[in-house]
Amino acid sequence: MGISHITLRVVAYDWDNLDAIKNKIYELLKGIDEKEIKINEHKDKGLVSTFLHVFEVKLSKKKHIEIFLSNLFERIGNFDDFIRNINFDENFSVYLRIDKNSLIEKNIVNLVDSGNVFHVKISFDMYNKSREIVIKILEDFYKKVIKKD
Questions:
Q1: What is the end-to-end Cα distance of the chain in Å, rounded?
Q2: Does the chain have fewer CB atoms within 10 Å around its N or its C terminus?
Q3: Is 41 exposed, middle or buried (0-12, 13-18, 19+ CB in 10 A)?
Q4: This prediction's pTM
Q5: Per-residue confidence of the chain (149 residues) as pLDDT tens digits?
Q6: Separation in Å, CA 51 to CA 42, 83, 100
């Protein structure tokens, strides 16, 4: 597949519903044996919120990556909009900022530029990466999940 690992990170503020966030994380990981993954949780202090709860999961097994991406891609309304709104770094890792409220309340992946979000980083393990190659990998996997040709 070409994906080496995926990191999911969510920062919850004082006003966020921690149970709803945890439930949504588990929904995105549905199909992965809970004994095989660890959701790291720690508390911190922030500028906007007195207390922060940070949840982080790192997936590196191919099976876990495929399950997570399947669960994520099933929640995408318009894949073309999704592709237009992803961000890349200099190594062509993909960064997704998924609106927290849309995902929790409507079960829809809506990418935004900033704000209260689920952060997803998708890293690729191949040489000669490019934006086009990475997009092709994501498109192919999306078609496989959604069963479109």
A1: 18
A2: C
A3: middle
A4: 0.90
A5: 689 999 999 999 888 899 999 999 999 999 999 899 999 999 887 776 678 899 999 999 999 999 999 999 999 988 999 999 999 999 999 999 999 999 999 999 999 988 889 999 999 988 888 999 999 999 999 998 887 54
A6: 11, 34, 18
